[in-house]
Specification:
eleven-stranded mixed beta sheet, 16 helices, 13 strands, about 35% helix
């Protein structure tokens, strides 16, 4: 049952030669063969290449900290020799000429790429579905979504087809699928992990980030240590050295919901129980009510949806029937607004910077925030209205706790914390100040240990 091990255990067994890289790769390929017909998490499985890489790893000296370890990559990152399809007929079929920055770092550390995982078309939805690969299902309930846009990656990891990998997050796209599937995922400060070789490459910089995903925060930390680093090709990259987290006298601010947006009972309970656990670890945990960020989700919507809407429409002009609903669902709504002026863009960027500055000032007292990832647990495919403790809410409102930290550029992490009464995972979110990913990771590891083991997704 090698596919059930965590990354740290796999690394130890490979180093001690208790198992071979080929055994480990084969165990995961066998698992993919059994589970992927139900999950549909992969766009391509690189079985022959992975086996050949494993044989070379077994014959050579350890190449790095992930020597012989299989991983997966969201199909929005270039992998040399293979196309990056983004779930779309409109993406080039031309094979990538070189590896993306994250794939290059994984390979240099000795990791073996098992395959690429599914996305919504052009990463434009919280559901993972497209005309090329089809719909990805949540391992906890095949009738529910694993989230998006890193839904294939989350489903593969939660379904134990992969021990970990890389996603991207432009509006909760790592954290929401991690929360929906009961795994861990980190959206770092933009620039902490290079985004070179991620598609699509256009868009407002500082909204999206590349980040690691795995079944535990401890395993996310292992991947983060490999992926983080300066890249002079990335305009936002900064030479931030790895550094130990300072937990002494740490104060944690709790937000049980984002502003006045109601949450489902299981979401509130998970945040409350996580706060109790952190107090039990000796941390000061108090209520936190931020001021001045109420319109952050609206700014995110402007940058992520409204600003690129006309370019997105032009991309499919004359071939609209070939565009999937995950791409077009919100497009017409965004096009209803008048085109953004240059002055409106400048004003919005200025408002974003002021909002970020104000929140970071408030976080001097609470360097870490504990809150929901989303107002809801994983929902049935295509559902768009959700019952909460209060009135029903829509998808935009349900994701405000995630999108806020994309537009403000703060690091945030989904930590698997509970399985609700309905048998679905309920994660919590830890948010930090810029460049303080190590603090979130250390705190997340402690929180997982205090939480104890969780149930696993059912087998079909």
């Amino acid at each position: 049952m090698l596919h059930r091990l965590g990354l740290a255990e796999m690394i130890s067994l490979i180093r001690s030669k208790s198992i071979s890289a080929l055994e480990l790769v084969n165990a995961h390929l066998d698992r993919i063969e059994r589970r992927n017909p139900h999950l549909n998490a992969f766009t391509m499985v690189l079985a022959d290449q992975a086996r050949e890489s494993a044989r070379r790893a077994d014959q050579g000296l350890p190449a790095g900290s992930l020597h012989g370890i299989p991983v997966t990559v969201k199909d929005s990152f270039d992998v040399a020799g293979w196309p990056t399809r983004l779930g779309s007929f409109f993406a080039p079929e031309t094979p990538a000429a070189e590896d993306s920055a994250v794939v290059s770092r994984l390979r240099r550390a000795g990791a073996i790429i098992l395959g690429k995982t599914n996305t919504p078309e052009f990463l434009a939805s919280y559901e993972t579905d497209n005309f090329l690969t089809g719909r990805t299902n949540n391992p906890w309930d095949l009738n529910r979504t694993p989230g998006g846009s890193s839904g294939g990656e989350a489903a593969a990891i939660a379904g134990r087809c992969s021990p970990g990998g890389v996603g991207s997050d432009g509006g909760g796209s790592i954290r929401v699928p991690a929360h929906f599937c009961g795994i861990a995922g980190l959206k770092p400060t933009p620039g902490r992990i290079s985004i070179i070789g991620h598609r699509p490459s256009e868009g407002v910089r500082g909204i999206a980030a590349s980040g690691p995903m795995a079944r535990s925060v401890a395993d996310v930390r292992i991947l983060f240590e490999v992926l983080a680093g300066y890249d002079d090709r990335d305009a936002l990259s900064a030479p931030i050295p790895a550094r130990p987290a300072a937990l002494d006298d740490l104060r944690i601010g709790v937000m049980e919901q984002f502003g006045d947006i109601a949450v489902q009972p299981s979401i509130r309970r998970a945040v409350q129980d996580a706060a109790v656990a952190l107090r039990g670890l000796g941390f000061v945990v108090d209520e936190f009510r931020p001021e001045g960020i109420e319109r952050a989700p609206n700014l995110w919507s402007f940058f992520f949806s409204e600003l690129p809407a006309r370019a997105n429409k032009e991309r499919i002009a004359g071939r609209e029937a070939e565009a999937h609903w995950t791409y077009t669902e919100n497009l017409d709504r965004a096009l209803d607004r008048p085109p953004a002026s240059g002055w409106q863009v400048v004003e919005s960027m200025t408002a974003r910077d002021a909002m970020r500055r104000r929140l970071v000032e408030q976080m001097r007292r609470f360097p870490v925030l504990l809150m929901p990832v989303s107002s809801v647990v994983a929902f049935p495919h295509r559902e768009r209205r959700f019952q909460t403790e209060g009135k029903p809410i829509g998808l935009f409102q349900a994701m405000m706790a995630a999108t806020t930290f994309n537009v403000l550029g703060l690091p945030a992490m989904a930590v698997p914390f509970a399985v609700a009464a309905e048998g679905l995972p309920a994660g919590v979110q830890l948010v930090g100040r810029p460049w303080e990913e190590e603090l979130l990771l250390e705190l997340g590891v402690l929180l997982e240990a205090a939480r104890g083991p969780l149930p696993e997704p059912p087998e079909d």
